[in-house]
Amino acid sequence: MVATSFTGFADTKGSFFQALAKHQDREWFAAHKAEYEAGWASPMATLLAEAREALDGEYPDFELGAPKVFRIHRDVRFSADKSPYKPHASGALSLGHDKVKMDVAVALYLQVGTETFAGAGTYGMEAPALARFRAVVQSDRGEELTQLLRPLEKKGFTLESMGMLKKAPRGVDPGHPRVELLKRKGLVVVFPALAPEELTSRKALTTLVKHAKAAAPVVRWVARAVQD
């Protein structure tokens, strides 16, 4: 059963995932599945559910989707790495979708395990959405995005995306003041790192909600730009 209140993940080091990385086989995982569920998957679901309630007011023009905890099983069909399990637990809250994909805007993405990080935004955009995003960023409205990002970057937030061009997109002036944003194929605001000790208490939820609220204006701006 999923707890109704987030109290923290199992430990600060992701010990379960360190062991899983060394034992990438179904027999080992089956024997330790209860440890994963109780210490990581269930707390992830609870954290996302509480975060959804806390963040709902930041998105008056969007419906937040149901909390989504991603499968720990890897899709190995097109990968040279055939390891069956991810060395982390992860989940997200999307804008307007219960199914979370890389081109769907998320109010919060969280990953905990051998690598822990969190963020919000749209990781990758399909060609039509990317074209709309770049058109708005090039216009006078694009300065709004710059103004929204500037205080976040001063507070230690960083930017990430599925990919980034080495040069300005075709037809874009290389000297455009927002050319670095125009090179991106998505836009995610990565939150400052959680302190390890936060992972095992409600402090993780408090910190993530604070960061997600700060990032919400950027996520909304991008989501509306893509819809235009």
Topology:
Layout lengths: L14 H8 L3 H30 L12 E2 L18 E7 L11 E8 L3 E6 L4 H12 L3 H13 L3 E3 L18 H4 L4 E4 L12 H25 L1
Helix pairs in contact: 2-6, 3-6, 4-6
What would you note in describing this structure?
With 228 residues, the chain is an alpha+beta fold. The protein has helices at 15-22, 26-55, 127-138, 142-154, 179-182, 203-227, and strands spanning 68-69, 88-94, 106-113, 117-122, 158-160, 187-190. It has a single domain, classed as 2-Layer Sandwich (BirA Bifunctional Protein, domain 2). It is built from 6 helices and 6 strands; from the N terminus they run ααββββααβαβα. A 6-stranded antiparallel β-sheet has the order 1-2-3-4-6-5. It starts with 14 loop residues before the first helix and ends with a helix. The mean pLDDT is 92.
Query: Which percent bin holds the helix content?
Result: 40-55%
For the record, the count of structural domains works out to 1
Overall mean pLDDT: 92
Kindly report the name of the CATH homologous superfamily.
Protein of unknown function DUF1054
CATH level 1 name: Alpha Beta
Q: Structural class of the secondary elements?
A: alpha+beta
- Number of DSSP E strands: 6
Largest sheet features: 6 strands, antiparallel
The CA-CA distance between the termini, in Å, is 42 Å
Q: Based on the structure given, which CATH architecture is correct?
A: 2-Layer Sandwich
Output the radius of gyration: 19 Å
- List the total number of helices: 6
CATH topology grouping: BirA Bifunctional Protein, domain 2
H/E series, N to C? HHEEEEHHEHEH
Query: How is the largest sheet built, in terms of strand order?
Result: 1-2-3-4-6-5
Strand share of the residues?
5-15%
Would you identify the regions where 5 or more consecutive residues have pLDDT less than 50? none
